[in-house]
Amino acid sequence: MENNNKSLAEKISQRIHEQHLHMRPRAYFIAGSVLLGAGFVSALLVAVFFVGVIVYRIRVNGPFGYLQGPNGWAPFLENIPWIPIVIALIGIGGGVLIMKKFEFSYKHAFLGIAGGVIISIGILGIVIDTTGLPERAEDLTPLRPLLHSKYSNDSWVAGTIVWINNNSVGVGTPNGLSYTVIYTANTIIIPDTALIAGEWVRIIGERENDSFQADEIMHQPTPRRNPGKALLNIEGPYEQEHEIP
After folding, report:
1. Rounded distance, CA 182 to CA 121, Å?
2. Nearest-CA neighbor of 183 among 150, 155, 213, 140?
3. Which of 18, 95, 143, 173 has the largest count of CB atoms under 10 Å?
4. Is 205 exposed, middle or buried, given 0-12, 13-18 or 19+ CB atoms closer than 10 A?
5. Could you report the per-residue pLDDT of 26-56, keeping only the tens digit for each?
6. d(CA 242, CA 3)
């Protein structure tokens, strides 16, 4: 047995000598660990921030609110924050892959650790949105395309009712745009209750310049971000004398 061990040791020594193999310095492994750690932390920070962006965009854009109407799939898909979702998934995936390189991931249940990290990212993302960081970051030019909220398109609009007429309402969006929304007896109102000045609505139909022919109007809860500040200078029939909340 001893001879066999010596023979194996000799073979290893010979191979090391022939191939000029040598041990890397300790600093090499320390630097590698530091870089892995930095990459892991960076991936988690990116994932946490963009999960916060996703929560913020879903809260403000309210894509699921459009699904109340029969024609709500198109605005629903347009209001899903696809790019932040992809970036968040890349951050989560990168963090998990880097985590597999660490020694502790082999000593413990890797799936349990990865699941805990993902759940923590989700919780921290919600906290990020709660603190209002995405709303403040929206003013930063590099992040504006990812954080900017859309409130209207050719087939939908979301905003606050600022005036009411017999067969039309004025709707203003938080970014200062205003539309005259025309509805008829065939327009679906969900739920089928009276429209009230100051309430938040989502509308599906067809836009013609500053007018909007409504096929569906949905009563919705007012978003946390107060849209009333952008609506005070909008004029129209039966303009309300009180400040819109």
Report:
1. 44
2. 213
3. 95
4. buried
5. 665 566 667 777 888 888 898 998 898 898 8
6. 98
Q: Can you read off the two tokens belonging to residue 100?
A: 């597999």
Q: How many CB atoms lie within 10 A of CB 84?
A: 22
Contact 39, 96 (CB under 8 A): no
Does the global pTM surpass 0.90?
A: no
Mean pLDDT of the chain: 78
List where CATH 2.40.50.140 sits in the chain: 156-230
Planar angle of CA 206, 207, 211, nearest 5 degrees: 125
- Sequence-distant (6+) residues with CB within 8 A of 101 are 36
Residue 172 in tokens? 């203003």
Which segments within the chain are labelled E, that is strand? 156-164, 168-172, 178-182, 188-190, 200-208, 211-220
- Euclidean distance between CA atoms 199 and 161, whole angstroms: 6
| Residue 77, φ and ψ in degrees, nearest 5 | -65, -35
> How do residues 110-164 score in pLDDT, each as one tens digit?
777 778 888 988 899 888 888 887 777 776 767 677 777 788 888 999 999 999 9
| CATH fold of 156-230 | OB fold (Dihydrolipoamide Acetyltransferase, E2P) (2.40.50)
Burial (0-12, 13-18, 19+ Cβ within 10 Å), 26: exposed
Strand pairing report for 188-190 and 211-220 = parallel
